[in-house]
Amino acid sequence: MKITWSALAVEQAREIASYIALDKPSAAENWIDGIFESVDRLVEFPQSGRMVPEIKRNEIREIVQGSYRVIYKVQETQILILLVKAYRQKLKENEI
Question: Fewest Cβ atoms closer than 10 Å to its Cβ: which of 27, 55, 88, 91?
């Protein structure tokens, strides 16, 4: 299974890392590393993330890294990383 990041998810991750780096660059680097490690595990275990509570669709799932959530869609041949958001932000159906 292949992992594909949407342009929006890449931009969101970049913005979050930049914000974290304002206080502590090493923490931003660790955060990015953690995100990629968590996402890489999806290749073997695509269903390991939980269903997004706001959406309640089996193919839309999320993994949590610290206080951020990585929202993804499981497709037949790939995992599409849709969004990276703060955990406290609610997701709306029209965002995916």
Answer: 88
Decide which of 3.30.70.380, 3.30.2310.20, 3.40.47.10, 3.30.450.150 is the CATH code for 2-89. Answer: 3.30.2310.20
Local confidence pLDDT in tens for the 96 residues of the chain: 899 999 999 999 999 999 999 999 999 999 999 999 999 999 999 999 999 988 889 999 999 988 999 999 999 999 999 999 998 887 777 778
Of 92, 14, 44, the closest CA to residue 71 belongs to 92
Transcribe 53-65 into DSSP letters: TTT--TTEEEEEE
**Residue 42 gets which letter from DSSP?**
G
pTM of the model: 0.91
